[in-house]
Amino acid sequence: MKKEDYIWDYRNPYEWMTRNVTGNFPPMMITCAITGGVQGKEFNMNLPETAEEQADQVYEAYKAGAVSVHIHARVPDNLSMTSANAEDYARINKLIRERCPDIIINNTTGGGPWLTTEQRMCCLFASTPPDMASLNLGPFMLKMPLKDRKPPIANPRDGFVFDACIPCSYTDVNLYAKTMKEKGIKPEVEIYHPGQYWVLQDLIREGNIDTPYMIQFVMGFQTSSYPTPANVLSFINEMPPNSMFAVIGVGSFQIPMNAMGIMLGGHVRVGMEDNLYFKKGEKVKSNAQLVTRVKQMAEIMNREVATVAQAREMLGLPKK
């Protein structure tokens, strides 16, 4: 496939039909978000928290077909909390690099609750830097009960109702993006609802983001758009030129949103940050289990699954 074939007009029905008939969709990139910034082992004992656990699960997901991994570092002395220390990210990144030299490392700037803007940026300054970093295009709210962390889980605490807003402004988003650009880290743009395209247009006008734009639709997260086919199509309709997209589906919506990404010629994200159950009543055993399933879905739907080399070329990243 020619490099220019990686970017196309997803809204054009004739091009979609032609690509479907000829099997000329771009290779599908699988990103795996192995852990999050809120839920921990109290929800699923298989969720990785320590640096070593994260590196182990990244390696298995990589072997299963993931080309990119999304990382939230935890505080080593309190694994229930998200880290604000650049070297906690550096340690995880280094362990991953030792096992998966070419995988695309994507660190979070969403971080976790109660972090300041500056603290959320800590991963950009890690001594072992990421290739990419997530870039949320607006604030979001969430409210959910967190379970008790009981022994033998490390750092036990009582459960409580988590109710918070993760704030940000145009100034914050441009600061994140400008810092990423200065450090050669590609933003993965996270859009929770279509109104956040205003923020993306501002980033483009300010010159703080370069093509190709990698846009990820966050579907089914609290205060994000509802995870419906119609809303995925609405997101696609507003994409600026020279863009690619991936789809996240939270919880039970992971499979249908993955299917939408595969069918429409886009890319997908899976992982235990987004979904802790493999199916109703059965908890996920590992992140690799979710990667294996979506790879099988893609193969059944005649989508080529990208290699790391192909993913780096599509995203405009260095080969190594």
Structure description:
With 320 residues, the chain is α/β, with parallel strands linked by helices. The chain has one domain: Aldolase class I (TIM Barrel, Alpha-Beta Barrel). Strands 1-2-5-6-9-10-11-12 form an 8-stranded parallel beta barrel, surrounded by 7 helices. A two-stranded antiparallel sheet has the order 3-4. Strands 7-8 form a two-stranded antiparallel sheet. α2 packs parallel to α3, α2 runs parallel beside α9 and α5 packs across α6. The two termini are 21 Å apart.
SSE topology:
Blueprint: H1 13-22, E1 30-33, H2 51-64, E2 68-71, E3 74-75, E4 78-82, H3 86-99, E5 104-107, H4 117-120, E6 132-136, E7 140-146, E8 160-166, H5 170-183, E9 186-191, H6 197-206, E10 213-219, H7 229-237, E11 243-249, H8 254-263, E12 267-270, E13 277-279, E14 282-283, H9 287-300, H10 308-315
Parallel strand pairs: 1-2, 1-12, 2-5, 5-6, 6-9, 9-10, 10-11, 11-12
Antiparallel strand pairs: 3-4, 7-8, 13-14
Helix pairs in contact: 2-3, 2-9, 5-6
Q: How would you briefly describe this protein structure?
A:
With 320 residues, the protein is an alpha/beta fold. The protein has helices at 13-22, 51-64, 86-99, 117-120, 170-183, 197-206, 229-237, 254-263, 287-300, 308-315, and strands at 30-33, 68-71, 74-75, 78-82, 104-107, 132-136, 140-146, 160-166, 186-191, 213-219, 243-249, 267-270, 277-279, 282-283. Strands 1-2-5-6-9-10-11-12 form an eight-stranded parallel β-barrel, surrounded by seven helices. The protein has a two-stranded antiparallel ribbon with strand order 3-4.
